[in-house]
Amino acid sequence: MLAASVNNTESVTIDFTPAGPTVNDEPFAWDLVRLSDRTFSILHQNRSYTAELLELNQTTKTVSLKINEHKYTVQLKDRFDLLLEKMGMSNMANAKVDDLKAPMPGLIVGVSVQPGDAVQKGDSLLILEAMKMENNLKAAAEGTVKAIRAAKGDRVEKGQVLIEFV
Fold this sequence. Notes:
Helix content: under 10%
Number of domains: 2
Number of helices: 1
Largest sheet: 9 strands, antiparallel
Distance between the termini: 35 Å
Structural class: mainly beta
Order of helices and strands: EEEEEEEEEHEEEEEEEE
Shape: elongated
Number of strands: 17
């Protein structure tokens, strides 16, 4: 499930179900055809739209689109963002990073940083495989890597320190 806010307006919920996408729990019927890497043709409720992807910022989870010559900025929140917001922890991104701990047991399949590396919020730190899925663990805030406590191929337990920050 995603929450999407277009041009800083009221948020809508988007979900992808086996029966197709829903918006605010209502089925959303559309036909989408890719015209190029960044351009799409959309048919919705017997109306035609041309959509162009202008920018995709994965760090801020923001998408800029041009639809029929009108520009839109869409801010997305996934279920984890919504959970943090619900718990009152959405402003913790500005906090100093202490340690990166394993959110679940799994296998380290990749490490993207080294001791001494400066990282920014959203930078990929390592990949943890759990339940047959690869989870890209990212920096919650800016910091400097002090030590890496897990290597590629290591099995880790939930709560185990993986990376220490200065």
